Each structure stands twice: as C-alpha cells, then as structure tokens.
C-alpha cells in the first residue's frame, strides 16, 4: 500500500489521468479515474502501470513483467452509475466479507483504499486521517463532485450491490497473485 501511494503521489498530474478514488486488493487495484477521452485514458493507464510495476518490483525484490498490460474500463455516465462505482471501489472489502459470511464492524473503513479521504460518507464524521495525502486528486467533473450525491451519500456499512452482482467501476487493473 505504501509503495502504491508513493507512486500515486509522484504520478499525480502526470500521464493525463486523474486518480479520484482507489482500493488496493490482494491481486489487483480498483480505481475511479478521470481522463479526457479514450486516448488519454490509455496513455495514462500505461504510464501509471509502468511506474507501479517499476516500484512494486523493487519493493518485492523481483524482476520481470508485473502487469498483464490490460485493464477493464467502463465509462460511468449517470449519477447513479457513479454512486454505484464509488460504492463498489471503496466498499469492495465489505462485499467480499458478506459473500464469505463475515461481518465487518459498522464504522470500519478499508485502510487499503482512499476511503479515509472520502467526503461522501453518510454516517460518519471525518477521521483524523481524512487529510492524509494518498496520492489522489479531487474530481473535476460534475458527476464525481455533485451528480452522484443526488442518490444519497454512501453508508459506511453499505454493501455494494446489496447482494446483487455489482457493476465494475472504471479503471480495474490486474496485479499477479504473487504480489499480494
């Protein structure tokens, strides 16, 4: 997580890509990003992926390809899609815990995500870590600043998809399983 945040900080404002929210999982990343079109997204993900690979290989004392050089991108076009995407990215740990029959404390926020910096929680006060620099940028688009809130802020104990299969948010990037 430290290495990924370090890379996000150094890459901030580069590659024509803005990382808005993210979650680090065992073998991949989920990200909500802003880009000025498909070409900017492709160039940005390639640049960010290269930087992540270099630094993660160094951190894991390994060499060779780290990424399979692909990502899943889905344009989030409506306020409800953006809300669902934010919930999915920031609450992915809760979805998996529920699927495994595990219970997570109601106010717990995933420390391997940008959730500590998220200002759209419905039922919690900002934490002391709300001002940590996690390498993300504030959104510029109406959908990510205001639009999604039309469907209500996100509950800390909310489970993405409410039991249904959630939609994938923009910018999923695969890491090999040995990097976990």
What is the helix content? 25-40%
Radius of gyration: 16 Å
Largest sheet: 4 strands, antiparallel
How far the N terminus sits from the C terminus, by CA atoms, comes to 10 Å
3D shape: globular
Number of helices: 5
Which class of secondary structure composition applies to the elements?
Answer: alpha+beta
| Count of folded domains | 1
How many strand elements?
4
Low-confidence segments, given as residue ranges, are 163-180
Strand content: 5-15%
Give the overall average pLDDT. Answer: 84
Give the H and E element order.
HEEHEHHHE
Strand order of the largest sheet: 1-2-4-3
Features:
180 residues; alpha+beta; four-stranded antiparallel sheet; 5 helices
Structure description:
This protein has 180 residues and is an alpha+beta fold. It has one domain. Helix content is 31%, strand content 12%. The chain is built from five helices and four strands; from the N terminus they run H-E-E-H-E-H-H-H-E. The radius of gyration is 16 Å and the shape is globular. The N and C termini lie close together (10 Å).
Quick take:
By secondary structure, this protein is of the alpha+beta class. Helices cover about 30% and strands about 10% of the residues. The protein has a four-stranded antiparallel beta sheet.
């Amino acid at each position: 997580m430290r290495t990924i945040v370090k890379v996000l900080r150094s890459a901030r404002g580069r590659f024509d890509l803005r990382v808005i929210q993210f979650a680090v999982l065992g073998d991949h990343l989920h990200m909500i990003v802003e880009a000025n079109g498909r070409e900017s997204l492709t160039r940005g993900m390639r640049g960010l992926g290269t930087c992540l690979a270099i630094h993660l290989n160094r951190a894991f004392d390994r060499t060779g390809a780290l990424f399979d050089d692909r990502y899943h991108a889905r344009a989030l076009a409506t306020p409800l899609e953006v809300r669902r995407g934010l919930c999915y990215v920031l609450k992915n740990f809760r979805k998996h815990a529920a699927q495994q029959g595990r219970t997570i404390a109601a106010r717990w926020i995933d420390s391997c995500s940008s959730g500590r910096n998220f200002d759209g929680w419905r039922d919690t006060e900002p934490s002391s870590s709300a001002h940590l620099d996690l390498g993300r940028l504030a959104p510029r688009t109406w959908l990510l600043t205001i639009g999604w809130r039309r469907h209500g802020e996100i509950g800390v104990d909310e489970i993405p998809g409410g039991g249904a299969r959630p939609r994938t948010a923009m910018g999923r990037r695969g890491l090999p399983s040995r990097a976990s």
